[in-house]
Design goal:
485 residues; Aspartate Aminotransferase, domain 2; 15 helices; globular; binds pyridoxal-5'-phosphate
Length: 485
């Protein structure tokens, strides 16, 4: 028996089948004349031939190689890899939601529209905004949508040509400057101070009548709350700019504060992070955008609204930026978020952020003695350590991350944010029990010991995985994605 690391093509034997259809007993029709010859297959496709049992073993072995939040701890900073309650999945699978078509007449989809409308209302409350769209399919697309709204606002005021600059702190998530460039802005980087928050003097120096806005994450990606936010909002607004809030990781502030209170004009949320959808492997996501009243006319269309006791769809907004996503965005993610919010209730959501912040600070305090802590103050939902103290043993942060895999733990985010040397960014999330937090801390502490005593153990990790270390440069520059015998 070949081992389960074989490709399905390598275990193929001519003549084996996993499933067979009865013999064809109707006449076959020759379509060849009607199809252009270059579209006709001249050889049999090379498909694997295996039995059903082999097939099951093959895919079960593959799935056992997967790592997810249901196999182990996933402290991936800024990604909110928390447990997603199964009742959300049950709701999303209900045929009334999953079997409807977005082009059905709205009198047959009142329930779906009601869900979207009520979710918009809930998210308005969560963010302190006045209007909401559920269209964007991810955080980054929400950023781009929000920036187009901001651009449309300045254009409407006759300042579209003049206000070209978006200010972004150097600690920001990489999607922020990327979205700003895609939306047609010039990016101005604002330095952080030694406390890890925005340097107010640097902000003042950068602001002018060419400022379109400031993009800010609060708490920022170092897990630190920008305490000067009120002053920053005043500086930007006084200069005629607007404030954009990156709310991808809202599990730090739910029920405690809102971007609306902080002075922001436009915000996106990541429903797939904060509001609970499994989202490893790149999708699916949902990045709703909320705005204050003065930006409402520019929201994407169509919009879901309520008229009396009916839910309607309206595109009657002449200043709207248009449509940013086909149909209604990722509707299934919105159902999960709605289910999650209604399950938790306002008190439950408050507890989410209390636990997220408590867990992060607990882990931070356990690990602080063993790593460099660039920012010693209390953190919010996540924190950043520096592995630079292990460099003297010729051990790098990447080695720590790889060694953690041997402990059955996923690696933290590494080398981000860019402003911290040998960064390890840890977000335990609110859903982990204390025992798991302790197991992770113990593993990290043992790894620091190993770095001193037997650093090669780290440099050669992981030891028991089917893939050790990949040549990531070759993998991205010269990928081999087609099976060749
Ligand atoms: C995840 C994240 C984003 C991007 O969200 P996507 O859904 O991956 O596009 C933006 N900003 C922050 C702070 C994030 O954590």
């Amino acid at each position: 028996m070949k081992n389960y690391n074989s490709l399905i093509f390598e275990i193929s034997q001519p003549g084996r089948t996993a499933y067979s259809l009865p013999k064809n007993d109707v006449d076959t029709v020759e379509l060849n004349e009607e199809l252009p010859s270059h579209l006709l297959r001249s050889e049999e496709p090379e498909l694997p031939e295996i039995s059903e049992l082999q097939l099951m073993r093959h895919y079960t072995a593959l799935s056992n190689k997967n790592f997810g939040v249901e196999t182990g701890f996933y402290p991936l900073g800024s990604c909110t890899m928390k447990y997603n309650p199964k009742r959300n999945e049950v709701a999303a699978k209900m045929s009334g939601f999953s079997a409807i078509h977005p082009l059905q007449p709205t009198n047959t989809t009142q329930g779906a529209l009601q869900l979207m409308y009520e979710l918009q209302e809930d998210l308005k409350e969560v963010t302190g905004m006045d209007a909401m769209t559920l269209q964007p399919a991810a955080g980054a697309q929400g950023e781009w949508t929000g920036l187009l709204i901001l651009k449309a606002y300045h254009a409407k005021n006759g300042e579209g040509e003049q206000r070209k600059k978006i200010l972004i702190p150097d600690s920001a998530h990489g999607t922020n400057p990327a979205s700003a460039v895609v939306a047609g802005f010039d990016v101005v980087e604002i330095k952080s101070n030694e406390r890890g928050t925005v340097d107010i003097e640097a902000l003042k120096a950068a602001v002018g009548d060419d400022t379109a806005g400031l993009m800010l994450t609060n708490p920022n990606t170092l897990g630190l709350f920008e305490k000067d936010i009120a002053e920053m909002a005043e500086i930007i607004h006084d200069a005629g700019g607007l404030l954009y809030y990156d709310g991808a990781n809202a599990n730090a502030i739910l029920g405690k504060s809102t971007p609306g209170m902080m002075g922001f004009d436009v915000v996106h949320l990541n429903l797939h992070k904060t509001f609970s959808t499994p989202h490893g492997g790149g999708g699916p996501g949902s990045g709703p955008v909320g705005v204050k009243l003065h930006l409402e006319p520019f929201l994407p269309v169509p919009r879901v609204e309520k008229e009396g006791d009916r839910y309607v769809v309206s595109s009657d907004y002449p200043d709207a930026i248009g449509r940013v996503k086909g149909y209604w965005g990722n509707f299934g993610v919105n159902v999960r978020a709605y289910s999650y919010i209604r399950t938790m209730g306002p008190e439950g959501l408050k507890q989410v952020s209390e636990s997220a912040v408590l867990h992060a600070n607990y882990l931070k305090s356990r690990l602080e003695p063993y790593f460099k802590t660039p920012y010693p103050q209390y953190c919010m939902h996540e924190f950043v350590l520096s592995g630079s103290n292990l460099k003297k043993h010729d051990v790098r942060t990447l080695d720590i991350a790889k060694r953690l895999l041997d402990f059955g733990i996923y690696a933290p985010t590494v080398y981000f944010p860019l402003i911290v040397e040998e960064a390890l960014m840890i977000e335990p999330t609110e859903t982990e029990p204390k025992e798991m937090l302790d197991e992770f801390a113990d593993a990290m502490i043992q790894i620091v010991k190993e770095a001193e005593e037997s650093p090669e153990l780290l440099r050669e990790a992981p030891h028991d995985k089917s893939v050790r270390r990949m040549d990531e440069v070759t993998a991205s520059r010269k990928p081999v994605v087609v099976y060749q015998k």
